[in-house]
Amino acid sequence: MRKAWIVAGAAASGGLGFVMLLVVGTYMVAGNLTNGIGKGAVGLAKGAVPAAYQSLVQQWGNLCPAINPALLAAQLYQESGFNPNAKSPAAAEGIAQFIPGTWAAHGIDGNGDGKASVWDPQDAIPSAASYDCKLAKYVKDAPGDPTENMLAAYNAGAYAVIKYGGVPPYRETQNYVKTIRSLEQSFARPVGRVQPSQQAAGAIYYAQQKLGTEYLWGGTGTAEQGGRFDCSGLTQAAYETVGITLPRVANDQYNAGPHPSRDELLPGDLVFFSDDLTNSRAIRHVGIYVGGGYMIDAPRRNAVIRFDPIDTPDYFGATRVTEDGAKALPTAPPNV
User: Fold this and answer.
1) Which pTM value belongs to this model?
2) Does the annotation count 323 as an active-site position?
């Protein structure tokens, strides 16, 4: 939900016509931006990792060549959503979701306080990186991509990777590898222009049809709700019409693809807002960028879906939604 000082800067009919021209004109140039994230991207995207853990992930994500900070962040997000108190039904514990036997063998005292605790991120994050690197060493002679072999070993065991000469033919393992590699892109700081989404125009079209619809907290557009939305309900529904399923809440939608800078925004990008500009988990509002500094959003109670400016003090950043990025996201909050 947006703060009250955010105003509808383009609500007048003349403003609508101006913004619509911006939408068309900006989207027409999108096809010329075809360079994706560079392979050398190992920095973290702005706020993608909570500030309390960012330096740890950046440091330990460079422990060995098979991992990088964005990959380590992707694993932590997939395992626990960066929740240091997470515990799964399978007894996996902490931010990195170690089971007790694995922690006993591979947990390390990352902060040097004399105690290795699975519940302390200063121990668990270094332990996750260390364990990744040990697995990479176990499977270093297997053919194929060393990072993907490491991830496969994490999921299926090093023996399976060695036996099959790479990622084994297990659907669960293959999906796990693809998920983490896709999420890696959303946690990496892009080093070049980000490829535009092919579904963006359809998502914008849907959102345009909802202009003037009354906001509803928790709204996802169902008939029972009178076709009303909140902010993330609108973005979720818009991308659902073009075959992309986004998570329900805004701070998870941030991880649905790579993150263009402000001057690289294209129509269809999701734009996010937060009171804490260092932590994507604190994001509280999302809209669909349409060009010219404006978005379509469902702003707050007692307001309607409308055009709003994005250049406000609480602007956090943007995500260019990709199909693989969205598919990689948990459909429910991870292990809470």
Assistant:
1) 0.78
2) no
